[in-house]
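dumping this here before i forget
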Amino acid sequence: MKSPRGRGHNLVTDALERIEDGIYVVVSALLIIGGVVLIWTTFNDLVLHPVAKDDPLTVLLDRGLILFIIAELLHTVRVTIQERTLVAEPFLIVGLIAGIRRILILTAQAAQGEAKSGSQVELVLLILLVLVMTGAVILYRRFYTAREN
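structure:
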């Protein structure tokens, strides 16, 4: 059965899809550039010009988790381009990594005696957020993927 829309509609739709793909490519390129810059600055800060004020393990952990976030965002862009739909699970994973990253940084600061006032409240809220997002991922995988099979 033919679409009631005319040829002009198909041209507009095709053009918009190409523009959308182009934007995804630009976002991917920016994420890759950001990842490379992050790797370089981490190498520079830890190996070439180490600074004594920050714990190298905390810096490495923090930036490593940011790299995981960048990698997961790249995966999300790839899945969005392939499936032509926005998938919720990668965003939940990015949120989990970001929450866990912040929890680890807060606990490292507290262990070094550098904790700010209110960091306990932030820590409790982050733990609750991570638990809720973990539950959301579990529910998503259980019900959404079961429906696809």
